[in-house]
Design goal:
Length: 387
């Protein structure tokens, strides 16, 4: 058995059900095998940080995810790893192809990666380095520790490890690469054309209270800062997951949850947060029927002083969602329009995106009195009681 096959075998042995992956040339054979292994659900990432949120959502519902990335991508993901996985206590095994340290031909890979062990130590993220074939047991250690102790754990795999493995049959690998489509197949999407001023009638708090009034067995994931406080003030429930950090991760978490629960999942996204994520093409690819994203667009960074975002006068976020492949979109600006949407939202297929155009401003609401571990534990217990 080659090293690539052995890695996948160990993942299966530990019950890993989902692999969030972003390619690296040094592990292309491993990815080739992973894509053909029906044991795993694959999440094709565009940014490593988004994988942290997706894996967090999967873990909250009892799933067992892992990330397979290039080590340079850890630089994109550290804030989310620390403020989400580490902070809430969520397992996150990260299998990272370690660049910049062995026969590296790209000089730009070196400055970050040669200092990576010291960075991981500084952040108190446990890690191991796998260099030789006999080190394969480190993967068992990483998976056991991460899932048992509910922490992130990084396995850095040097390229020299793969040199010692049995090569995949070259003809088979060549067949894979030659089978890739040579022409792009465009998805035809009707884009609504607008050139008018939309005058909003609601604040974010108004919209959240309308959404909350319709809740029964749905999961709600709310964005960081004031939106979470406004949801708590509107209707606190064990099925609400309040984010206390991890900017731009709310839709990522919602996607992960939607893939591991039969419940409907509502995401309270923000305009600034949406513009900062790369998860929407991934959502469109997965297209879960039980996921609805409510983009609460007040045109500002509401929790940091109402500084304007690009959505205020430059970007139409409904068109952005459609352009990324989400076909079921709506735009609302009034309480009556939002109410009509809520009355029919459960009967519609595919991932849904509701662009709610709002006035800026925050409600005068109190801080959430729950500790982060209380939010996590009561949520996990509630979501486990499936319908």
């Amino acid at each position: 058995m080659g090293a690539e096959c052995e890695v996948l075998s160990i993942l299966r042995k530990h019950g890993v059900d989902t692999v969030a992956v972003l390619p690296c040339d040094r592990i292309r054979r491993l990815i080739w095998l992973l894509e053909r292994d029906e044991s795993f659900d694959k999440i094709h990432l565009l940014k490593e940080e988004d994988g942290v949120g997706v894996c967090a959502g999967i873990s909250l519902c009892g799933g067992r995810p892992a990330m397979l990335i290039q080590s340079s991508g850890l630089g994109n993901a550290f804030n989310a790893i620390l403020s989400l996985s580490m902070f809430y206590g969520l397992p996150l095994p990260v299998i990272a192809s370690w660049r910049g340290i062995y026969k590296e031909k790209i000089p730009a890979q070196i400055p970050f990666n040669e200092n990576l062990p010291a960075v991981l130590d500084a952040f108190k993220i446990p890690f191991r380095v796998m260099r030789h074939a006999e080190d394969i047991e480190m993967l068992d250690e990483v998976l056991n520790y991460s899932f048992d102790h509910e922490v992130p754990f990084v396995l850095l795999i040097s390229p020299e490890f793969w040199e010692q493995s049995n090569e995949l049959e070259q003809n088979a690998e060549q067949d894979y690469f030659s089978a890739r489509p040579s022409q792009r197949k465009w998805k035809r999407v009707l884009i609504p054309q607008r050139d008018e001023f939309v005058k909003p009638e609601m604040t974010r708090y108004d919209a959240i209270r309308i959404i909350a009034s319709f809740l029964s067995d749905e999961v709600v994931v709310s964005n960081i800062g004031v939106p979470s406080k406004e949801l708590f003030a509107s209707r606190d429930r064990a099925l609400n997951f309040y984010m206390l950090g991890s900017y731009s991760q709310v839709s990522c978490i919602g996607l992960g949850i939607s893939l591991r629960t039969r419940r409907d999942v509502f995401v309270l996204e923000g305009d600034g947060s949406m513009l900062a994520t790369s998860i929407y093409p991934v959502i469109a690819e997965k297209n879960p029927d039980n996921l609805t994203i409510f983009c609460l667009d007040n045109g500002t960074f509401g929790s940091t002083g109402d500084q304007p975002t690009h959505a205020l006068s430059v970007v139409d976020l409904e068109i952005v969602a459609r352009g990324f492949g989400i076909e079921n979109t709506k735009k609302v600006k009034s309480a009556s329009e939002l109410t009509r949407v809520m009355e029919t939202i459960h009967s519609e297929k595919g991932a849904k995106f509701v662009h709610i155009v709002l006035k800026p401003g925050n409600a005068d609401v109190k801080n959430i009195p729950l500790k982060h571990y209380e939010i996590k534990e009561r949520f996990k217990a509630a979501v486990k009681g499936e319908k």
